[in-house]
Every structure is written in C-alpha cells, then in structure tokens.
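Technical note accompanying the year-one report. For the benefit of new consortium partners, we illustrate the data format agreed upon in the data management plan: each record pairs a sequence with a structure-token string. No post-processing was applied to the example shown here.
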Amino acid sequence: MSTISLRLPNSLHETARQLAEKDHVSLDQFIALALTEKVSALMTEEYLQQRASRADLAAFEAVLAKVPSVEPILEDRR
C-alpha cells in the first residue's frame, strides 16, 4: 500500500471529513473510495470509446432490420 501527502483547501477537507463520518468510514477510506470512483468512470469512458470505434453501422442496421414491426405491449408504452 502507498502513502501520499495531499494538500486540500480547509473547506474541502472539512466537508470530506464530515461525509466520511456520516458514512461511518475513515477519511482515508473515503478519499480512496472517491478516487476509485473517478478512476472507474474514466476507465469506463475509455472502454466505451474503444468499443464505439469498432462499431459497424451496416451490421447494426442489418440486425435492426430483423426486428419485427409490431406495436409495443401495454407495459412498454409507459
């Protein structure tokens, strides 16, 4: 495990401390979870961009053309 020194504005530090307390976790855990969420979001964005770059519009339209043209059932109309 690594240790980092982090400088935060007093107001952000206090807000994070209060939220960690409210969530019943240590400030270290709270910051680690916040960083984990951000890293996950950025990695997901990169993954989706890579997937989108491999998209084949013609193949998508071919699959979509196979879907029957019928009215949606009542539960799906809401």
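Partners are asked to follow this layout when depositing records. Residues 31-66 form one domain.
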